[in-house]
Amino acid sequence: MEFKEAKNKFVQTWGALGSQWGINKTMAQIHALLMISNEPVSMEDIMDELQISRGNTSMNLKALMDWGIVYKEYKAGERREFFTAEKDLDELAVKIAKERSKREIKPALKILKEVSTIEAKDSAEEKHFVDQTSKLYDFVLKADNMLDKMTEFNDNWLGRLVMKIMK
Amino acid sequence: MEFKEAKNKFVQTWGALGSQWGINKTMAQIHALLMISNEPVSMEDIMDELQISRGNTSMNLKALMDWGIVYKEYKAGERREFFTAEKDLDELAVKIAKERSKREIKPALKILKEVSTIEAKDSAEEKHFVDQTSKLYDFVLKADNMLDKMTEFNDNWLGRLVMKIMK
DNA sequence: TTAAACTTTCAAAAATAAATGAAAGTTTAT
DNA sequence: ATAAACTTTCATTTATTTTTGAAAGTTTAA
């Protein structure tokens, strides 16, 4: 396989993976492109490489910057803006985890708490509902706290975690 | 909040959460409904409760059964089939993790291996590509193995894991 | 200040994913 | 074997999400 083919395959795969995990295809593809680029890339280049519109590129770059996994860079003597991706994978995973926790898990926990604390009266059905949603609340809270813990580890938390799990 | 309202809120929230994580809304809603039901539910009841068509219900129940998180049940003297959800949350998490690993992570790893083993020639650009995709391969492999480890823990792996992380 | 060079926004269009429902397929009791 | 009772399939429709691109907005150098 030659370089250009491999590069394309990687960008496509990363894009497809993104959509399966609730991140839009273009956003994932731009991120992929920046990840494997050894120097900052201009918006023009991204549009050209991925064959997407200016608006789409702009919106998704903004989203990636909101997630904190893509940075703007300025080159001396250049009017245009350039972009780079967070390339450290531990850092990347932590940022994605934090963002999804904030956007999705925290609001879900709020709802779970609400519904699990209704007064259960005496029907078996209602008792089961309260029991099950309470358990779910505890589970999700525990999982979310685990994500928080990851962010406290300074370096290579994944490797260290695997070590611990293996005993 | 009364029971009916809480129940509805839970089902809607679970459905929305599902779509954010690449699982279709109805599939997640059916699962939610079965999770909080203290007894097996018929297809008719699911259709009625969620206001969805027979075909949709059937397809998504099948998908849930393929994932191994919903079971068919037969009631004595009843022609109809009933359904129940896996209610043990550890078991549920393990099954979902296994399934997503099989469907998404394993194929992605295959591609990552392919593209990271191209011959890098001498350009800095190609060297960076190979370096970055190799690192990504290692990272994803490690994360996937972590999921595997979870499944080996017999009971309450999440609780134990949190204990370990906390030191 | 101005205008060139660039970026962002957002209503409309296109692409994608999900849902419908009628027809085909199964199963089971008699 | 039959028909009633039920489930599944899949071509079509509907809903949702993403993309486009022209217009509006912004920044910078002179």
What is this structure's SSE topology?
Two copies of one chain form a homodimer.
Chain A: H1 3-20, H2 25-35, E1 41-42, H3 43-50, H4 54-66, E2 70-74, E3 81-85, H5 89-116, H6 124-152, H7 157-166
Helix pairs in contact in A: 1-2, 2-4, 5-6
Chain B binds a DNA duplex (30 and 30 nucleotides) through helix 4.
Q: Could you give the distance between the termini of chain A?
A: 40 Å
Give the number of domains of chain A.
2
How many DSSP-defined strands of chain A?
3
Biggest interface between chains: A-B, 52 and 51 residues
Give a summary of the structure in a few sentences.
2 copies of one chain form a homodimer. Chain A contains 7 helices and 3 strands.
Notes on the protein architecture:
The structure is a homodimer of 167-residue chains. Helix content of chain A is 70%, strand content 7%. Chain A is mainly α. The first copy, chain A, has two domains: 3-85, Arc Repressor Mutant, subunit A, CATH 1.10.10; 89-166. In chain A, strands 1-3-2 form a three-stranded antiparallel β-sheet. In chain A, helix 1 (3-20) packs across helix 2 and helix 2 packs across helix 4 (54-66). The longest helix of chain A is centred in the C-terminal third of the chain and has 29 residues, at 124-152. Chain A starts with a helix and ends with a helix. In chain A, 26% of the residues are buried. The model of chain A has no long low-confidence stretch (mean pLDDT 89). At the A-B interface, helix 1, helix 5, helix 6 and helix 7 of A face helix 1, helix 5, helix 6 and helix 7 of B. Chain B binds a DNA duplex (30 and 30 nucleotides) through residues 19, 24-26, 43, 52-56, 58-59, 62, 79-81.
